[in-house]
Amino acid sequence: MIDPRRLRVLRALADHGTVTAAASALHLTPSAVSQQLAALESEAGHPLLLRKGRRVSLTPAGELLVAHAHVVAAELERAQATLDALTSGTAGRVAVAAFASAITQVVAPALATLKERSIELSVRDAEGHESVRLLLDGEIDVAITEEHRSTDRFTTFPLYTEPFDVVLPPDHPLGGGPVELAALADEDWVVTLPGNPLRDVVEMACAQAGFAPRIRHTSDDFRAIEALVAARGGVALAPRNAVGGVRMAAVRQVVAGVAPLRRVVAAVRRGSEDHPLIRVVIDELCTAHL
Asked: Per the database record, which ranges form the HTH lysR-type domain (predicted)?
């Protein structure tokens, strides 16, 4: 019989790629993780791991077991939600991670209303891709993030959509009106770091305009991105609400034609969407931006 507690260890390994990283996410020692994985392989009766130096990959049997582990985890989340609903758990604390402008747009407006309903939010500033990792690691309950690639591990709720604007240095010759992205093909670019889904949006928009951006500077902080542009370090694309209430020397212009979009969602672990506390928080976040 497979011990379901060990499936959590296997999922962490699949998410993080090394025993050390999985141990850190689970707050265990690497030795404990290795022991749990060895025991799971024995229980499963199949080799689950291929070791290549410090990194570990999954065998076909391991991939299959991880898929079942996701289903088991969702059912456990759903069972907890059902039990909490049975006891009318409508007061307590919910941990939320969101990037800075989403905190301004939806989280902060919801904070006071939820407090009146005896629900305390614990808010953590994190970029969208980082908040998804925190969600899957069980460190938070709700992640405010960009629309993510399809996954069966969480449920999403649309919050709002915003276009990207072109960000130009002061006195740039294209600063007088809507900007065709193709006109920026020969510019240096300031973009987010690899792994940030917003970088994928920018690179795809540039590809559709017929060029690959010549990346000169990188940052996940849009205040830093706009400061670098203002210092004539390059041009950028930035979500319209990414830097609110901050005056920069950089010039923002709308994109000519169809602008790339950031679709912002609230994500929860699949199975937890009916938890009474989380349900109330999601409903309030969805109405906060209206």
From this structure: 2-59
